[in-house]
Amino acid sequence: MQKTSENACFGGIQGVYTHPSDACGCDMTFGLFLPQEAQDGPVPLLWYLSGLTCTHENAMTKAGAQAWAAEQGLALVFPDTSPRGDGVADDEDYDLGQGAGFYVDATQDPWAPNYRMWSYITEELPALLGATFALDMDRQSITGHSMGGHGALTMAMNLPGRFRSVSAFSPICNPTGADWGRKQLTAYLGADETAWERHDASLMMRKAGFDGPMLIDIGSNDQFIDLLRPETLAAAIADRRQPASFRLQKGYDHSYFFVSTFMEDHVAFHADALWA
Amino acid sequence: MQKTSENACFGGIQGVYTHPSDACGCDMTFGLFLPQEAQDGPVPLLWYLSGLTCTHENAMTKAGAQAWAAEQGLALVFPDTSPRGDGVADDEDYDLGQGAGFYVDATQDPWAPNYRMWSYITEELPALLGATFALDMDRQSITGHSMGGHGALTMAMNLPGRFRSVSAFSPICNPTGADWGRKQLTAYLGADETAWERHDASLMMRKAGFDGPMLIDIGSNDQFIDLLRPETLAAAIADRRQPASFRLQKGYDHSYFFVSTFMEDHVAFHADALWA
């Protein structure tokens, strides 16, 4: 693993690291914020999964999350959103291929050899983080934005016991029923929609739910709200009686100005679960 | 004036606006954060001047300042760092020309027609802001980073009574004695160094000082510290008995990870002066 940069930040260290990934068959880069407390021993870890077109860098520089993580004594990891590189398949559209991994393990060509973000985020990267840094891997929670909110919700519901809490900012809530989803799930997983189910937060809510607290924020002026389909997830939460806070935030849109506004809430929400 | 964007942000509005500038002879773009309180009447204004290579956008997206400005009920303005456009003189070096206006009114060719950032920031933009938005122009303070810290300090000391307080993150403290300064002051103002004096914070501290509180933060691991020459300003502050806090922050560098870490302190510092 190579260190790209380390910057002092809110009393801790904001690092960027690159490593060869078996899951993705290419080099992968991630950001990791370690609070001051990590100098004395392992700290809990909050995952932040980013949205379409993002790299590890967007949330790391624009979400303002380190301020609150430092206050709560939490580490933050910012993974990339897809495999990358010259030898990695790509597409001209912004919402397929590099920058748009959708947090699945692709089974279809040309994506199958590299597009294994599910395995990367749920297996390879946690193993690497736990072996390398002062992280208490028994205390993990997960959040994300847009496509990353989809990833956070589906991982939390598919892996019971892994995450103490889950939250999302403007998540893609029902990809099997929206243009942000059907195209990508077809490309990565094929036309058989039974393989899609576990990658749809609304369907997973009806099937499994989440054994822990859940927090979801969506801006009432989100310019992509028709693609996110929050109404399907809200109905599934209500039908299941899932303990959750589902909030429409008046006037906010899909941008990082929205994410940063509610980041303090989300980090405090996860800290409550992680320190319980 | 044209509105480029407005995003809900921490209960207020983060806007971006473009207008034709008489001072600079081109279109200029700035960011303006208005807290919720601006819906009910004029609010105090904190200026943030950015550093080399930056536009209006860097601090607006990476400094995390809106969180604290919202808490304190302050507006924030993020001006650009130079004139821009095809008809505007430029240089191949990152530290001269577009993105590197150095907050002076150039008198030398080819810079003189457009490079009038002093007049733009101290006259034209405040007049426009005061006439257009709910801002209490009797309550202004100023801060900045690197070249912008230089701008903030020199404007505050040259314009007694304008700003209630001044602060800076890793400012260029002594441009007449450093490679970040001599080259640009020569290009913009000519070889006669008497014209440079008022654009040097260390010299202005010895000549005039500042009638109000001053806060300066510099990282002890700042990779550009030899170009900033903080020792000259520290000595001038001490010699003058200027009321000021001059802090070397252990382990921090020149990045926005440093700026964002101490932004809460700086906004609270200015709020104390602005609401007094």
From TrEMBL, chains A, B:
Catalytic activity: S-formylglutathione + H2O = formate + glutathione + H(+)
Keyword Lipoprotein: no
Coiled-coil ranges (or none): none
Family annotation (NCBIfam families): fghA_ester_D (TIGR02821)
Biological process according to GO: formaldehyde catabolic process
GO molecular function, one term: carboxylic ester hydrolase activity
Keyword set, alphabetical order: Hydrolase, Serine esterase
Alphabetized PANTHER family for the sequence: S-FORMYLGLUTATHIONE HYDROLASE
Any single Gene Ontology cellular-component annotation: cytosol
Family that this chain belongs to: Belongs to the esterase D family.
Keyword Hydrolase: yes
Protein name: S-formylglutathione hydrolase
